[in-house]
Amino acid sequence: QVQLIESGGGLVQAGDSLRLSCAASGLTGSNDDVGWFRQVPGKEREFVAGINWGGNGIFYADSMTGQFTISRDNGKNTVYLQMNSLKPEDTAVYYCAARLAHRFEYDYWGQGTQVTVSS
Fold this sequence. Notes:
By secondary structure, the chain is mainly beta. It has strands spanning about 5, 10-15, 20-25, 35-40, 45-50, 60, 70-75, 80-85, 90-100, 110, 115-119.
């Protein structure tokens, strides 16, 4: 039904930038949401940012303001997360997830892409 594939992660130095991509299939509703999450060992999965497929809303976690930007290209069925001024504490596995319009929670998840930021 819904398939999400993340890409764009890698090993970078502090201060570098990365753009993560989430290729999404099965999303057709303008009120569907796609979000980015991240997870490190020993911690719960953390919300980073979300965007409505119809482009009527963008949401960021309070701790993510300023450095991360979420966007989408519906024609390419892709959601992006632009990450600037990366810090070692940004090291995590980054996941994209989908929440359909009639659901309260994100029910579909990708496999994740590793982002490692060295000092």
